[in-house]
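Quick one, tokens below:
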């Protein structure tokens, strides 16, 4: 079923085809998960499916399709919602940017294209938190269903050290994956330095073990060189189906409910209110309404529909349809900091710095589009996943001791279970809470870059934070952003770990052979030495990886759950949530592959075949 990613005639629906019409399924959100579910449900020609996407189609956009344009979408309203958090009191009271994909394909169209599965521990954690049907074997089957893996050439594999096991990959799924065409010499030096620090390379990073340093997959079509994402993998090949209607520029406001509920007293969704062209419309659902609006929007739509915490809804004049306090709670994120270096400017070291020159950038774009050559062939692929105990054993002992004491005192049983699992991970040699990624260029701001110089960035991320945020509406206006509070560094252990990760990034740069290309450190700079200075640097510069999860957690209802293990919202007869918001405890890997797999799983559940 793999789809080539070249230009395809891809119609979208007109308002006349959707407004006041009735479909079997209405899906809110045409992003990573929503288009997967839509494509699978509409495989049955007797089933009608409508997708409401708030953004534009953005199809055949070079800004999306051509790789190595990292970050160009951020803040651009055509591609990015550019949400902002509330001021963060534990991070100098500054708000933070939460970028999120806007338009068909959602974040799969603007992310860095990393494709990696989580640990077996991560999937087992979902099961242990109250979802007995979940397990690694089932997850792996659905993940393979997503993928059409395109192996590198033997020459590419040998030159770049690419390791893979064909048995761990899908071969006929819609989404195309491969390794980057080329690896820069700077990236090779980075990987060798990590190896010299003791990081091993797993034989098969796609089979539940991501510990160590390795070169990962990217979502790309080797034939065309274009990004493969949910819009051209799942939607475009199926856009001509008469039973599938996708309406863009149609933000959803709220669900509407039938006067009579379900047979067990649950509320029964009858449709969705949405806007298009400045007008308000309704579309009706015969069977189910499926929210795939993402972690930041799905809870907002539920609350506007009267599903949530009564103490938040009633003051806004919203009738409470389902008392469900877990909506918008348990929010978790992957956060990162960075250390930036100026390096030797000789031709041997390839970086993205030259793309700052607009003429050169245009030349390189044209070169890539015509011949698949040039700077756009150098994807970001090398990363390390390491336990804190391998970065700094003493710091790990300190964090573990602190967390043990907190868990012992904790009265919130749901959070206690989650933190107990996090504690288990911290003690393990095989559960990496720390991620190190390499960018052959200067990322971020706060330092002066000299023209003609070359730079690299070592990015360090915390993927299992203890802090829990919240996302809640503050008005009944669906166009108004909900209050998004990440609670960044509310738990001091997160800050402590982040500081240790940044110190380790500097250590990598001081290790052979990477140290031979470093000229100087630009950020945080050599004056940053003490633990407290690293903590302050983390407070000033830590950002979101845009992997926010948990706001509609798949947990038992009495433990703050919003959906059951079959994605159905508690207290409803026919409302499901299918996106990253259902994840009750964050995974320790980039979540793109996880989202695709759970969307495939949810589609089978909805179809009644799982």
């Amino acid at each position: 079923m793999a789809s080539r990613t070249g230009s395809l005639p891809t119609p979208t629906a007109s308002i006349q085809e959707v407004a006041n019409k009735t479909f079997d399924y209405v899906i809110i959100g045409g992003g990573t998960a929503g288009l997967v579910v839509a494509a699978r449900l509409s495989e049955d020609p007797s089933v009608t499916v409508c997708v409401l996407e708030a953004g534009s189609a953005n199809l055949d956009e070079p800004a999306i399709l051509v790789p190595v344009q990292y970050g160009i979408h951020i803040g651009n309203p055509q591609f990015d919602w550019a949400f902002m958090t509330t001021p963060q009191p534990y991070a100098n009271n500054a708000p933070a940017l939460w970028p999120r994909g806007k338009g068909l394909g959602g974040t799969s169209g603007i992310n860095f294209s990393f494709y990696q599965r989580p640990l077996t521990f991560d999937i087992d954690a979902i099961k242990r938190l109250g979802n007995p049907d979940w397990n690694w074997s089932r997850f792996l089957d659905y993940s393979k269903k997503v993928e059409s893996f395109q192996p590198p050439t033997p020459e590419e594999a040998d030159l770049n050290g690419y390791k893979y096991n064909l048995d761990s990959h899908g071969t006929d799924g819609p989404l195309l994956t491969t390794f980057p065409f080329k690896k820069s010499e700077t990236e090779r030096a980075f990987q060798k330095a990590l190896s010299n620090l003791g990081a091993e390379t797993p034989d098969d990073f796609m089979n539940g073990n991501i510990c160590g340093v390795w070169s990962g997959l990217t979502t790309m079509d080797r034939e065309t060189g274009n990004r493969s994402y949910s819009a051209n993998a799942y939607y475009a090949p199926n856009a001509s189906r008469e039973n599938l209607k996708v309406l863009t520029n149609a933000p959803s406001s709220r669900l509407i409910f039938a006067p009579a509920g379900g047979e067990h007293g649950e509320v029964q969704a009858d449709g969705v209110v949405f806007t298009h062209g400045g007008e308000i419309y309704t579309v009706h659902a015969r069977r189910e309404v499926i929210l795939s609006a993402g972690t930041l929007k799905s809870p907002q739509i539920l609350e506007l529909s009267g599903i949530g915490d009564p103490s938040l809804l009633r003051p806004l004049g919203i009738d409470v349809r389902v008392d469900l306090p877990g909506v918008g709670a348990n929010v978790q994120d992957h956060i990162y900091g960075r250390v930036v270096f100026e390096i030797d400017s000789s031709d041997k070291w390839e970086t993205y710095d030259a793309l700052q020159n607009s003429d050169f950038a245009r030349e390189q774009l044209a070169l890539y589009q015509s011949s698949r050559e040039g700077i756009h062939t150098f994807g970001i692929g090398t990363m390390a996943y390491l336990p804190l105990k391998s970065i700094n054993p003493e710091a790990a002992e300190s964090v573990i001791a602190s967390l043990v004491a907190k868990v012992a005192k904790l009265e919130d049983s749901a959070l206690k279970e989650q933190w107990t699992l996090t504690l288990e991970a911290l003690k393990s040699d095989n559960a990496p809470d720390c991620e190190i990624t390499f960018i052959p260029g200067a990322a971020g701001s706060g330092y002066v870059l000299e023209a003609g110089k070359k730079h690299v960035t070592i990015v360090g991320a915390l993927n299992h934070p203890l802090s829990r945020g919240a996302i809640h509406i503050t008005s009944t206006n669906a166009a108004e952003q909900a209050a998004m509070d990440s609670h960044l560094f509310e738990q001091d252990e997160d800050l402590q770990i982040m500081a240790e990760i940044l110190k380790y990034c500097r250590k990598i740069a001081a290790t052979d052979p990477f140290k031979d290309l470093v000229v100087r450190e630009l950020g945080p700079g050599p004056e940053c030495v003490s633990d407290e200075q690293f903590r302050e640097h983390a407070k000033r510069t830590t950002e979101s990886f845009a992997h926010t999860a948990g706001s509609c957690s798949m947990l038992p209802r009495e433990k703050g759950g919003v959906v059951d293990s079959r994605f159905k919202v508690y207290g409803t007869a026919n409302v499901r949530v299918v996106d990253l918001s259902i994840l009750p405890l964050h995974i320790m890997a980039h979540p793109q592959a996880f989202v695709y797999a759970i969307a495939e799983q949810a589609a089978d559940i909805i179809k009644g075949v799982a």
